[in-house]
Give the backbone structure.
Amino acid sequence: MSAKRAFFYVQHLLGIGHIARASRIANAMATDGFDVTVVTGGLPVPGFPAEGLKTIALPPVVASNAGFSGLADANGNPATEAFLSSRRDMLLSAFRETKPDAVIIEAFPFGRRQMRFELLPLLDAIASVNPRPKLFSSVRDILQENRKPGRDEETVKLVKDHFDAVLVHGDPDFVRLEDTFPLTADIADKVRYTGLVAPPLVADPAERFDIIASAGGGAVGLDLIRAARDAASSLSASYRWLLISGPNLPERDFAMLQHEAPANVTLVRFRKDFPSLLKGAKVSISQAGYNTVGDLLRTDCRAILIPFVAGGETEQTVRAERLKAMGLASILPETGLTAEHVVSAVSEALARPPRQAAALDLAGAETTAAIIRSMLG
């Protein structure tokens, strides 16, 4: 019997969290025997999707600003109608050629409204195929608060009209979909919780650092990395610091950080072994993105979280406050962050014993594959 074919669409616009989570899920599906094609629409990210997966890279678009209110091409120019039409045609052609049994769309319709120009035609194409592939929405556990009336109702209609299931990548004992999506009751029959998509259990690190500061994709993490760099000069020089700027930090900012870094600081853009490095670290300083938190929850590393709030973002604040309430993290504000804040928080963290690993469901990638397989029959 031939393998079931899966067509997995993921669009990252600012950070790398969406493509990292989708890649982990796609890996688990491939391990489960699926023939997976991952369609990406953002700038290339080292290590994602993982080697061995079939990939189709659409001409990339990025968020034109931190508020996600527009789209730009890879050079930062506003995306033209002709450019977007060409992307849409490529996506639809890839779908027809793949002939999938299952289609997974990451974030939409709960997010990625900017991509309706190609995703609504994709939904129509899926509906026109006989036999029609099963359609899944793949969403993180905490959604961005909608600020415009009618958005949630539109999401519900799209789910009811097109989707077979909404795969919520979270543990309901930590946070439930209705906590950030008020109309969950209207689609409750389609909601499936998978657990958090965390990395597999990792080996001991090949290299050890005492304190790791990371900025996710790096597009908005300069202040975090700069404050951590300056804090390293105020704490004991015996501590080894690793600063991970993210691949999207502008080159001039990276060069400035590197030029002024003290001797006990190593600065890199990306580390593929990040989960393993956290296992060996005493303290982590990071934003409160989904994947970074999943990496942290696999370890006993003390966590200092700096939630991303620019453009009215609420998701990371909700996650950080839940973790703080559980005794799993401390929080620093993004606005006005200084080296003194970091020094104080790191000192307090080092004075505490390592925290116990969280008793949360972290097998979301494997459970997602199992749910999709069971629904395909």
Notes: The CA atoms of residues 231 and 340 lie 7 Å apart. DSSP finds eleven helices and 15 strands in the chain.
